Amino acid sequence: MRLNDLDERIVHALAEDARRSYADIGELVGLSAPAVKRRVDRLRAEGVITGFTVRVDPAAMGWETEGFIELFCRHNTSPADIRRGLSRYPEVVSASTVTGDADAIVQVFASDMRHFERVLERIAGEAFVERTKSVLVLSPLLRRFSSGAPA
Amino acid sequence: MRLNDLDERIVHALAEDARRSYADIGELVGLSAPAVKRRVDRLRAEGVITGFTVRVDPAAMGWETEGFIELFCRHNTSPADIRRGLSRYPEVVSASTVTGDADAIVQVFASDMRHFERVLERIAGEAFVERTKSVLVLSPLLRRFSSGAPA
DNA sequence: TATGAAAACATCCAACG
DNA sequence: CGTTGGATGTTTTCATA
């Protein structure tokens, strides 16, 4: 499922502003509005574009505290187990299994330090978790694309 | 800059589908289309909503390889220096200064391992970088919200 | 200060060439 | 893929609470 240059430029335009009109995008990439719509529809059908979402200032949503939690899991813990365990936490915005010492890296948004600590303790108490190591975000420097499935 | 219940429900509706019409959202939250638009306009003006973007399957974009790079920087490196240095890499999708041993955590998408390695070497060669430590993502388990400023 | 109704305007999208 | 035109959505104006 390879994208050509036109598709990439359309996706890029949508990444910058997903509410931009098809006519605007068409002007940008040299296509008519319906042609752009047809490509966007095709990209959605193919699963390249999985949806449209809003970019939000976390602080404004009351999420003042952000951090990463490294998970060291018990033996015989599958990625699916981790996923299932973590999906119940609304504070978890992203999680991945990784190479290296830790088994997974989990990104968490919390309202404040107390909230973050409470989430950390609950995650550390999960049956499949052996120990954790966490770092707090001081300043978010860059936040670019959005990917994957909705909440 | 506190949000009331109505604002939160509007933001939530947009987070699920940013191209949903104002009339649809209005029906959902019990407002007319113009009332929803005015609130969205206000949220944008206040910086709560920073934009609208598309959710993309990274693999479909040709980004098969994902990883985190911990940055250990030279003394007197400011967050702005790191931001400036990293913003030139299109492969960098997120970066934050953090507590703990490392100074910053950088999330990178690359087309394959060779590409990832090339980016890693170039970042490690930046003047402000002393050393790096990186892990590769094995499986992305969860990907939820989008936040922050556009590219 | 915030709302809804309505009108003017823009965009979308299915049909056709 | 582009053009067309009726349907749908957006945005301004206006009156009201």
TrEMBL record, chains A, B:
<feature type="domain" description="HTH asnC-type">
    <location>
        <begin position="3"/>
        <end position="64"/>
    </location>
</feature>
<dbReference type="Pfam" id="PF01037">
    <property type="entry name" value="AsnC_trans_reg"/>
</dbReference>
<dbReference type="InterPro" id="IPR019885">
    <property type="entry name" value="Tscrpt_reg_HTH_AsnC-type_CS"/>
</dbReference>
<dbReference type="InterPro" id="IPR036388">
    <property type="entry name" value="WH-like_DNA-bd_sf"/>
</dbReference>
<keyword id="KW-0804">Transcription</keyword>
<dbReference type="InterPro" id="IPR036390">
    <property type="entry name" value="WH_DNA-bd_sf"/>
</dbReference>
<dbReference type="InterPro" id="IPR019888">
    <property type="entry name" value="Tscrpt_reg_AsnC-like"/>
</dbReference>
<dbReference type="InterPro" id="IPR000485">
    <property type="entry name" value="AsnC-type_HTH_dom"/>
</dbReference>
<dbReference type="InterPro" id="IPR019887">
    <property type="entry name" value="Tscrpt_reg_AsnC/Lrp_C"/>
</dbReference>
<keyword id="KW-0805">Transcription regulation</keyword>
<dbReference type="GO" id="GO:0003677">
    <property type="term" value="F:DNA binding"/>
</dbReference>
<keyword id="KW-0238">DNA-binding</keyword>
<dbReference type="Pfam" id="PF13404">
    <property type="entry name" value="HTH_AsnC-type"/>
</dbReference>
<protein>
    <submittedName>
        <fullName>DNA-binding Lrp family transcriptional regulator</fullName>
    </submittedName>
</protein>
<dbReference type="InterPro" id="IPR011008">
    <property type="entry name" value="Dimeric_a/b-barrel"/>
</dbReference>
